[in-house]
Amino acid sequence: MRCPRCVQTIHRSAAQCPHCGFVLSDLDDLYGSGEVRLRRLSDMAGALRLKERQKLERLLDEFQTSFPQLFFSVYYGALEDRANIRQFGLWLLNHAAYEDLDIGRPNDGGILLLVDLNTKVASISFGYMLDSFLTEENTFNILAKAHPHLLQGNHLKAASVIVKQLSRVLRRKSRRAILQQKVFGPPSNQSSGSANALERIRSNRSAKEQAKSKSDQTTRAKSEEIEP
Amino acid sequence: MKLSLFRWLLLLLLVSDSARAESLPQLTDEDRARLQQLLSKQEHPDRSGFLEYHAEGSELKIRMYLFDSKENLADTYTIEKLCEDQNADEPLTAIVFCFLGNPERSQLAFAGQGAAEVLALDRRKMLKSAIIKAMEKSDHVMQLEAFIVELSISLFWLESKRAETLAAQAAEGSRELAGKAWASGNGVEKVEVVTAIDASGFSVLKSHLHWIILGFLSLLCLITGCVFGWLIWTRSRRYHFPVVETPERLGASYAAGVGAVIAFHKKLGSPSSQRNQVPDYLKRA
Predict the structure, then answer these.
(1) A72–B contact, CB cutoff 8 A
(2) Does residue A15 sit within a domain?
(3) What ipTM was reported for this prediction?
(4) Distance from C-alpha of B127 to C-alpha of B144, rounded to nearest angstrom
(5) A67 touches chain B (CB under 8 A)
(6) pLDDT digits (tens, 9 = 90+) for A30-59
């Protein structure tokens, strides 16, 4: 994984970037800390016409039908700083409240295509659910397929190519994941990282301590009852 | 009359079917051989054997009259007259006058039922091709052999052509019959079965053409159905991902997956040149 600010490789469970110290709260100062109300297709820069928007909406619906846990959102904007597109994408996916999505699809399963028409840069961000299934190389190959259409300014075609390519990659990954799950069994929570393991140990310890203190209290009470 | 004719013009007679024996009962094979000895004892059965072989496999028989090369025929006795007088009631037969050692003088005519349907152009072509084949040989007997073989081949094609015509006529007849039955609405009590001899495989294919088309269409429908079924199945299929608890990264509660970034502000900046994305401060100025 890469840090969205310094683009250095970081650990999957890093609480902050070890190179530049980046955390998401840094962006809250820049873009705000509240929720952002959005639709799946947000064309702030006016890149698409009405008919094109309708077509893209249908394509997004098809994507959601095929992948019941996921959703795909597209944001056309005009940012000022080219280097910030990764950070803005990350921030937007964490703060967005999608109006046209049901509650059953949290932002964990979201994929955001961010197209900056000002600096002419496009990026893909995705939620935690796809962390194990999508790599940077996957997303780069998908964007590279849409590059000629982006150059021509055909944003509908570019978006549809991205959605289709991404669907193809995700279908393959899903089949493989389900197969692996059948062979090796469902993923256990123990393998979910050192932070969770530490938390579990702490919680176990606290439960034992609580039980011990409870038993101490009862023995004390009993002894007090006997003493008078 | 026949004997007088044979005295000066008929040298040897080769007959390809038994009808010939009935028309000349007074001459035996020995008599013929005695009258003229144009062919040797071995050559005579060889040639007549080929004619019999042809007669076995073909409806169109050959009747050959063999003369010496310089033999002069009487004006009153022509091949056309022979066809009219003797062979009018017989099945279609090819009458050939051959002059041994002089194939260019050969004559060909058709006698019997359906002789008028054979075009003069076809007859001339057949005779010409047989003469050309015969002229390729130097030996008289070999010329005769080549002539007969070529004529037999030509007659085979003529027979095939006649069979195709007959088949077409039969098909037309059956169509007319069916049309009449359909128009009357009473049906046909007795169906006339018109048999046609068709040697070519094309007509067999033609007769089964509707089955072939039906099979092909069924196959096409099956393939189209399979493709549509597969497309519908693919579209209706749902893909799920196993839910794995991932620790929060960089303080983000929903997403910290930063994918690739691609720039499209200049046409020369190909995607491959942007593959290795490095921090800005590592790039050269």
Answers:
(1) no
(2) no
(3) 0.75
(4) 13
(5) yes
(6) 888 888 899 999 998 999 999 999 999 999
